[in-house]
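Lab channel / #folding
Pinned by the channel admin:
"Please post every new chain as: sequence first, then the structure tokens as a reply. Keep commentary short and put observations after the output so the thread stays searchable."

First post following the new format, from NK:
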Amino acid sequence: MSSADIDIEVRGELYLKLIERQKTAVWGLCLRRANYNVARAQDMVQEVWMALWRYFGSLRPDCTEEQERKWVLLRARGILYYREQDKSPPLVFMDTLPETPVETEERDERLLVLFERLDADDRLLMQMHLDGYSFDEIGSALGISAAAANMRKSRIVSQLKRWAKRMNKQ
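Reply from TO:
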């Protein structure tokens, strides 16, 4: 067994423990969002836990259980919010022609490369911002003020723009 397999096993065990500690909070959130429809709430819970696995690496290992609960619920709300937004009908009118799939894929790959260059805290901040969280919520989750969260986001965007310019010159 390789060290990568062991790391995944350990991460999986830690994630299962997180689920066990926070399952009641997530269930309550989903049940309320589903207007107490148990079947819909069960689907929502499953979707939340599957989506949270992507963000699990950004959870600080030394956080308290209360901080952990805030982290889980903050992301769960965003996941559910965007799940609801995906149900909306597509826009019919467009000012410009859509990009071709190749252009979109290339742009997305370049953005991911730049995004991966950020340190873990900056990636988390940007992910939360892109997920639609307010600067108050971001600051609360990161333990900084809303103004500091906004300032950091601006700094990160500037850095990403500089990196993108360099990447385009190459």
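NK: Residues 90 and 147 are 35 Å apart (CA to CA).
TO: also worth noting, The radius of gyration is 18 Å.
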